[in-house]
Amino acid sequence: xxxxRLKLKDPSRAxxxxxxxxxxxxxxxxxxxxxxxxxxxxxxxxxxxxxMVFRFGALVFIDASPETERAFADRIAxxxxxxxxxxxxxxxxxxxxxxxxxxxxxxxRLTIAELSLERLQIVAHILVKSTVLAHYEVQVGDVFxxxxxxxxxxxxxxxxxxxxxALLRQIGSVLSAETLTVGRVEVTEKPELTWDRPDLDRLxxxxxxxxxxxxxxxxxxxxLDLISRTSETLLDLLQNRRMLHVELYIVLLIAFEIIIMLxxxxxxx
Length: 269
Hints:
Blueprint: E1 13-20, E2 24-25, E3 37-38, E4 41-44, E5 50-54, E6 58-62, H1 66-75, E7 80-81, E8 88-96, E9 103-104, E10 110-112, H2 117-155, H3 164-184, H4 198-210, H5 213-268
Parallel strand pairs: 8-10
Antiparallel strand pairs: 1-6, 1-8, 2-7, 3-4, 4-5, 5-6, 9-10
Helix pairs in contact: 2-3, 2-4, 2-5, 3-5
């Protein structure tokens, strides 16, 4: 069970902070000489502690001070694509106890068998997935708030004006969320670390259950699907209304030409 030991301030406990900082992080050449692991990229920090960097835009700090976390995030800012003004964060206190691997207590502290690199990487995978889900749960909630009055208006037979571009932005944000959570983050997929390590697989499964990753992912997927279908329906209705307006204009132009023609015929007589 013994894994790679880390130099922690206290070998029996550590603090983890997960950041969802942007859409992607370029890890090429980052900490090339000090890498402890490639997946996720794990490097020690000069100021103390460690950072795990996930290419899909997330960071997990282990045993690092808030000042150290911020300094590192600022240092790699140019590597972060589409960075968020306020990154979604999640924090966790971790305690070592060989008898309680993967248990959360009533105060939210996590107990794992040992604070090895491999086990902390499993914790990091869980934390970043939870953080990404939290980010898009908020975003989807905001979109729901904008779409709900439109759907209610349609049920009452009323049309509520909304710019076509706003609808397109909504659809785009939904597709972006689906691509990131399902494609790159792979919320429901197990990390490679678990493939040949039954003990790490059990730890991952316990934590996945504790954080309700699969349930939250299914709920988010259902909401994304509903938003996508609602937005596309509204956009289709908007386009149909425009087509009706165009047809009305054509009819009016034909009627106007007929009136002119009749007037000319009458005056000509």
